[in-house]
Amino acid sequence: MKTVFTVLFVFISQIIVAQHVPLYVGSYTNTESEGIYYYSFNTNTGTLSNKKLAVKAENPSFITFSANKDFLYAVSESDKESTVASYAVTENGTLNLLNKVSSNGSGPCHIQLNQSSTKAVVSNYGGGTVSIYNLQKNGSFINAFQVVNNNIPGVPAHAHSGKFYNNELFVADLGRNFLSQYVEKDNTYVLKKNYMMAKKAGPRHFEISKNGSFIYVINELNSTITALKRVEDTYTEIQTISTLKDGFIGMNACADIHLSNNQQFLYGSNRGENTIVVYKRNLETGLLSKIQSIFVEGDWPRNFTLSPNGKFLLVANQRSNNISVYNVQKETGKLTFMYSEACVSPVCLLF
């Protein structure tokens, strides 16, 4: 009987542990925040708990994981020196610094790894450059092997995000107003094509569908999402749709964009209108239909994320110092507000 109870206790304990996953929060440290924070998130109830400082860092405004989540990577928007850092994730959730290297440009604002976690791409908004790195097996950086500079006289580049897809690399440049497609060749990335957005659109972040057939670009300056469809080895625009409510008047700057796990819904954040916009996505045509705009229960939603099981959506409200948590309706994709968690200057959420 004692053996049965022991087995049952272990089984229940495993279930409880499995329900809790780490959430890391990148922040701006010009007020009370000290760096990257750790929370425990319950994937069954949607509750946040056990907040602690994972590591002190200066303005870690964007963070990402390696594929196995053993390592975490962060940009640092420092006035003195713009860097990117690699950290080892410890058993208790804190982060140990492995190394730092130059981002090769001012204002690094985004970092992403390839699927095998052997390469990283960093976008420098201020400097307009894109740095590409090899990563060592221990998770640390090797200095950039390629730096792309899209600045031209009279039109400064503002690289805002980059993503790998198979042997390709895509970069959104808000300053030059295009999405770039590069192809890997002889351990370097060669430009294939620049996809221009509408005049003064300002591409910021983007999502690539799982099969690579569609790319969705959220445009910061004109509050739209542009959908691109793959035709052979390039893309063509099929739709541009507003992120705002009909009749909205006022300043707005779009920020983040994410596809649902089942690819049926697309979400975007509006800073100014302070909403999350929800679209139903046609899986065959890739076209979007707006189905909801919901208040973020805060101010300036710079970044948001979906929980690993897709049941919850969390929003980082930079100016109101809070994280808003929503339930995601599985059948419709629509959001229902649950509660708000106080957090100083949250700007990036990472599961």
TrEMBL record:
It comes from the Bacteria. Coiled coil: none annotated. Keywords: Carbohydrate metabolism, Glucose metabolism. Pfam families: Lactonase. The keyword Transit peptide does not apply. PANTHER family: 6-PHOSPHOGLUCONOLACTONASE, 6-PHOSPHOGLUCONOLACTONASE-RELATED. Belongs to the cycloisomerase 2 family. This is Lactonase family protein.
